[in-house]
Design goal:
Order of helices and strands: HEEEEEHHHEEHEHHH
CATH architecture of the largest domain: Up-down Bundle
Structural class: alpha+beta
CATH class of the largest domain: Mainly Alpha
Shape: elongated
Strand order of the largest sheet: 1-2-3-5-4
Radius of gyration: 21 Å
Number of helices: 8
Number of domains: 2
Largest sheet: 5 strands, mixed, barrel
Oligomer: single chain
Number of strands: 8
Helix content: 25-40%
Length: 264
């Protein structure tokens, strides 16, 4: 008997966060779930959209719950689910909803089916908690997540020396997404690539990369540094993912409309 056949009908118990769902038929839903042990999972939730369904709360976007699943081929059938946290307050604020949607889209892009990623899972839970229950600027929460994500996934930006010549850097300094980090002013003259940023922005980024997330609530980022990190991380992640996420476009649309609050 092959391993694949042995997996058929297997019961799986896992925690997870709902990253995406698609409604079909009258009351069914297909979920994309992030499990710390199993990575990206495709789950069929039958009848979950019925008003009295016991699965309604655990099949909502951002839902964090305990799931019992039956494996059928490449998908899983939801047989039982208990909500741990719905992060409901995210849905009350269009800005928080936009940034949190971008965060879970990033997660969906980097996780792999069957591949464990416990550090990223718990980073996501902490970030969703800050979106839902704190007054921290949603942009700052997002930038913290972006930087921590790069570290977990193995493409932490180099912020210590020039990526081309290896020399130490000082103002003026540039961040080159395709190079994976900083380049000095002399190398910039040759490659003409990168974003001019302040050393203060570099120091904030280094602090975020190394800080304990328990200190996240007291972090203060100036509007000027925030704008620079925003441009840098958007370009850097687009370079790494080789695509631009639609939720990122929506965030920029909100910023253009002036709906992105400049909280201090």
């Amino acid at each position: 008997m092959t391993n694949r056949r042995r997996e058929q009908g297997k019961i799986v118990r896992t925690q997870g966060v709902v990253l995406r769902y698609t409604d079909f038929k009258e009351s069914d839903r297909m979920l994309t779930l992030f499990s710390p042990e199993h990575g990206k999972m495709s789950i069929l939730a039958r009848g979950c959209r019925k008003p009295k369904s016991k699965f309604l709360s655990v099949t909502q976007l951002f839902a964090y719950g305990e799931y019992i699943l039956l494996r059928k081929g490449d998908i899983y059938i939801l047989t039982q689910g208990d909500i741990i946290d719905a992060f409901f307050d995210i849905r009350k604020d269009v800005e928080k909803y936009a940034y949190a949607s971008y965060v879970i889209d990033l997660v969906e892009e980097v996780i792999v089916a069957g591949e464990q990623n416990t550090p990223l899972f718990y980073l996501l839970l902490q970030v969703l908690s800050y979106f839902a229950y704190s007054d921290l600027n949603p942009r700052d929460i997002t930038h913290i997540f972006e930087l921590k994500l790069t570290d977990i996934m193995g493409y932490r930006p180099n912020l210590d020396s020039c990526m081309i010549c290896g020399s130490s850097v000082s103002n003026p300094v540039y961040f080159a997404p395709s190079k994976g980090g900083l380049i000095c002013s002399e190398c910039y003259k040759m490659v003409r690539e990168g974003y001019n940023i302040q050393m203060g922005t570099v120091q904030v980024m280094k602090y975020i990369l190394d800080m304990d997330l328990k200190r996240m609530g007291i972090l203060k980022i100036s509007p000027e540094f925030r704008e620079q990190i925003d441009k840098i991380m958007s370009a850097y992640l687009e370079e790494r993912l080789e695509k631009r996420l639609k939720t990122r476009n929506f965030i920029e649309h909100l910023q253009e409309l002036g709906m992105d609050a400049q909280k201090k």
